[in-house]
Amino acid sequence: MRTVFWALNLILVVLATSARAGEVDRLYVIDCGWAHAADQSLWSPGVNVGVPIDFSDNCYLIHHNTEGYLLWDTGITDRLVAVPDGINVPALSQTWHRSQTLAAALATLGVKPADVRYLAISHVHPDHVGNVEEFPDAILIMQKAEWEYGQKLPLKPFSPKNKLELIEGDKDLFGDGSLTMLSTPGHTPGHQSLLVRLKKTGDVVLSGDAVHFQSNWDDRRVPGFNADKAQSTASMEKLAHVLANKHAQLWINHDKPSSDARRHAPEFYD
C-alpha cells in the first residue's frame, strides 16, 4: 500500500513538473531608438540610390516562466535622450535618436535592470549594444566569434562587468526549446539571431541585422556595410530554412513599417 502511495506521489510530481515545463510566456517589443538615413542604397546596393529611409531599432524583453527575464539587444545609447535633435553618424549618413531610456521603458512594465537575468546581443554594433553597461548583474550571452571581433576593434563596443556566456554556433539556451540562439554570421563575424517559441503566437525569429529591410529579405540582398557577403547569403538561407521548418515569422529589427505594425510594450506577445 505504501509503495502505491509513493508511486502516486511520484506521478503527481512528474505531472506538475510537466505542467511547469519551461516556456516563454511574454515577449515585449520595446522602442530602443530610431534612425534616419539619407541614402537607403548603403544597405541595398544599387537600389533606391539617394532615397531617404527611417530605421526602427527595437529591444525585446522576454519572460521565461522558470528562468526569468532575458533582454535581447539594448539599442542606441540612452545618452541620446538628452539630445532631442539626435546625433549624426557620418559613416552611415544616419542621424540616431532616442526618446526614452531603456530603464524608463522597463519601469513601465514593473521591471528593473537588476531583474534582467540574461542579456543576449545579436552583435556589437553600437545601435544594438548602447546600454549593455546598464545591466551589470545579467549574464551576457553572445557568440564567441563576436566577442573576439569586438575585442579587436580600436574602440571597444562596451566594457562589461557581466559574467560572460560565450557560445559557438546554435544553442538551445535553456534546454527546453523555448529560446534558441542561431548563428547567423556575415553582417559581423559572430552575428546571431534568436528563435523564440510562443504558445499562442507561434515561433518568431528576431533577425538582429542578418537582414535590414523586408525588401532586402525578399530579394536576398546583402547590405554594403557588411563583413562577409557569402556568409550573409548563407545565413539568410539558413533563416529561410528555419522559418519553413518551424512555420515561424521573421521580425526584421530595422524594418520600420513592420515594426510599426507590431504591438509594443506594455502590450506583449504570448
UniProtKB/TrEMBL annotation:
Record-annotated Metallo-beta-lactamase domain positions: 56-254
Signal peptide residue numbers: 1-21
GO MF: hydrolase activity; metal ion binding
Keyword Glycosyltransferase assigned: no
Keyword list, A-Z: Hydrolase, Metal-binding, Signal, Zinc
SMART domains reported for this sequence: Lactamase_B (SM00849)
A Pfam family this chain is assigned to: Lactamase_B
InterPro entries: MBL_superfamily_lactonases (IPR051013), Metallo-B-lactamas (IPR001279), RibonucZ/Hydroxyglut_hydro (IPR036866)
PANTHER family: BLR3078 PROTEIN, QUORUM-QUENCHING LACTONASE YTNP-RELATED-RELATED
Family per record: Belongs to the metallo-beta-lactamase superfamily.
Entry protein name: Glyoxylase, beta-lactamase superfamily II
Organism: Bradyrhizobium lablabi
Organism taxonomic ancestry: Bacteria, Pseudomonadati, Pseudomonadota, Alphaproteobacteria, Hyphomicrobiales
